[in-house]
Specification:
single chain; 173 residues; coiled coil
């Protein structure tokens, strides 16, 4: 009887289960990304502090030769470039985390929509099933009514035949 409803239930449950698993994976990926982002940020801050410290130290040192001054400038430039590269990487990781957050939101909406669709499908199938059961009951009732009517007609025909036979018997005497 309830096969249609059961199929919709299990199909909805499977879809919901898959969507939830995907959602959990996305959440875990987002958490990992946030941890990497935090580690990169603190590393970039340490490098910038180190570059600043070196710069201050270089400023305090009175350099006698030009070559030494150039070497310190080159070293500072390299440290600043490395810090800039790390900031870019950090920005990319941050953008990935934001995108993952949006993807998780979209997956949550999809799960809600699929659950709603499955529920609507179950309700529709339940209505169809109830209508079919009512139709079959009406059909059975109609069939019973016509059988009863047929039996009455046969009884009437027999009664008329008996009357005719009785009249015929009286007439032939």
């Amino acid at each position: 009887g309830g096969e249609w409803g059961d199929d919709a239930d299990s199909e909805g449950a499977i879809v919901e289960e898959r969507a939830r698993a995907r959602l959990d994976a996305l959440r875990e990926e987002e958490s990992d990304t946030r941890q990497r982002e935090s580690a990169l940020r603190s590393r970039a801050e340490r490098l910038e502090a180190r570059a600043e410290e070196l710069h201050e130290r270089a400023g305090r040192v009175v350099l006698s030769d030009e070559a030494g001054a150039r070497a310190l400038l080159v070293s500072r430039a390299q440290l600043l470039r490395a810090a800039a590269r790390r900031r870019k990487r950090l920005q990319a990781v941050h953008e990935l985390a934001v995108a993952l957050g949006e993807a998780i939101g979209a997956q949550e909406l999809k799960v809600i929509r699929l659950a709603s669709e499955a529920s609507a499908k179950r309700a529709t199938l339940q209505r169809m099933l109830e209508e079919e059961e009512r139709r079959q009951r009406r059909e059975a009732a109609r069939s019973t009514d016509s059988s009863v009517a047929e039996a009455f007609r046969e009884l009437e025909v027999r009664a008329l035949q008996d009357q005719y036979d009785a009249a015929d018997a009286v007439g032939s005497e």
